[in-house]
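Title: Comparing notes on inverse folding

I've been comparing how different people in this forum approach sequence design from structure. To keep things fair, I'm posting one structure and asking everyone to reply with a full sequence. Here's the target:
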């Protein structure tokens, strides 16, 4: 399934902590940045999370919620979030159901070996639940600023 701009974002509910969940449908009336990343505590993923942390207040002022999603466990997410003092949600999708819905569970290759993995991607979901912008094959450097600029330009 390939999602396009103006499509309704597929709804999902994921665990974000020991006894907490994040449901996309409960975010209506707010914009949502849904970013997919491969693995907690790796250099690129740590930089991306810290960049979102630095811009968190700017996004909050624009009525925008941030959630990062990977297959990592809640325990891993809690440790990662605590270590870097992250002020936003990290959701766990261990079975890859949300990854599949958003088309970010893809075949990758390294050193001639093929394997399945998470494509670093970001979806900007509008207040009405529709996808407003999609960034695929994200390069971490300047990505968060590009998202912020997109949100500012749309106001």
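Reply #1:
Here's my take.
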């Amino acid at each position: 399934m390939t999602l396009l701009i103006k499509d309704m974002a597929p709804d999902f509910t994921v665990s974000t902590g020991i006894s907490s969940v994040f449901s996309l449908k409960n975010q209506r009336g707010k914009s949502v940045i849904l970013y997919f990343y491969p693995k907690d505590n790796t250099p690129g993923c740590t930089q991306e999370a810290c960049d979102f942390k630095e811009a968190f207040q700017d996004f909050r002022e624009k009525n925008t919620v941030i959630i990062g999603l990977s297959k990592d466990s809640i325990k891993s997410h809690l440790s990662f979030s605590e270590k870097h003092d992250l002020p936003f949600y990290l959701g766990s999708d261990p079975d890859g159901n949300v990854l599949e819905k958003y088309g970010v569970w893809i075949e990758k290759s390294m050193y001639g070996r093929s394997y399945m993995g998470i494509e670093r991607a970001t979806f900007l979901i509008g207040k009405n639940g529709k996808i407003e912008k999609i960034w695929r094959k994200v390069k971490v450097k300047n990505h968060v600023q590009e998202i912020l600029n997109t949100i500012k330009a749309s106001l």
